[in-house]
Amino acid sequence: MTTNRPTGFAPAASPLASTTIHTPEDAITAGETTIPTQGENMPAYHARPQNAEGPLPIVIVVQEIFGVHEHIRDICRRLALEGYLAIAPELYFRQGNPNDYADIPTLFSELVSKVPDAQVLADLDHVASWAARNGGDAHQLLITGFCWGGRIAWLYAAHNPQLKAAVAWYGKLLGDKTLNSPRHPVDIATDLNAPVLGLYGAQDTGISLESVETMRQALRAANARADIIVYPDAGHAFNADYRPSYHEESAKDGWQRMLAWFAQHGKK
Fold first, then answer.
1. 76 catalytic per annotation
2. CA angle 179-181-185, nearest 5°?
3. Which among 69, 123, 147, 159 is annotated as catalytic?
4. Which of 74, 117, 123, 204 is an active site residue?
């Protein structure tokens, strides 16, 4: 993750929605819900195609560091247009509201770093269970995540044996180990239950090419089903079309690769 303040990252009063793409909802059903998890009700956003027959393949969408804002909700809407039931849970809801912070270092130190990986992975299990009870196909469970969520997508692929595939967008691969984050993607390469596609930018100042190569070596050593694509002209958050970091060519290619990865590995 970078330390540059993104466009629209400010308290809730900011005009984020006016600068963010909003996919038309004519052919989908979308809205807020709550998901029972570990004795509490977790807020979440979901979207699905209208008038779909039979259980839908499920995509869990894991937020950027900024929480489930309009861009992440729109990712769900775009996936719904592709035929998926997409759910983005508010994974910080116990620790606080990311909209209360005006800069990334403070957000990370005072909120994000206090969210335990174990809590997140358990919450995601409950999201998968909720989706299976609400029109989703438990046998077609997929996950994608962005930035903070990209790292979580790697971890979840090693956590849930029912997962069919994961796509991690510029998720951190290495890092300091803490009580809340005892393992990172490079540490779980041997434990992957599902094939993972990693999408990274060569110009990312927070995720070095050396760390990407270290991850590739770990995956090769583990004989893991995974692939990492590095876009030479893209930096961090290159899919975030509401931010200056957006790199259209790389983002569009990554989106198509994600859909192809899900289609290839997500079948029953």
1. no
2. 145
3. 147
4. 204
